[in-house]
Amino acid sequence: MSSTRPTMQPGQCDICFKVLSRVSDLPRHKMTHADPGAGKKFTCPSKGCGYETSIRANLNTHMTTHSDAKLHCPNCDKTLKNASSLLVHRKTQHGYEPSAHKDEVELFLIWSCS
Ligand SMILES: [Zn+2]
Ligand SMILES: [Zn+2]
Ligand SMILES: [Zn+2]
Fold it and tell me: Which ligand ends up closest to the CA of 14?
């Protein structure tokens, strides 16, 4: 909706200024400019997985499906398979009270991409 662009043609990409023969191809063309690192996508760091999500929490959940992903207890040396096990462990072993520190768990994710 910028009114300052000079003489854009219908079907012209405002990123690379290429003119497409069909206006309907424009959205798909523009997707080729999408930078996977820009903003929205979280990608599974595990080699060969290719899982992508726009929601960070989903990635964390997904990571627990990889057997080589471990959660490291911040209070001792124990590693656990998933966030809920870690939570139970921390509650029972360390008297941890989950509160506003939900994101804390993420800090202790150890990616092991062998
Ligand atoms: Zn373009
Ligand atoms: Zn994955
Ligand atoms: Zn512990």
Answer: 1
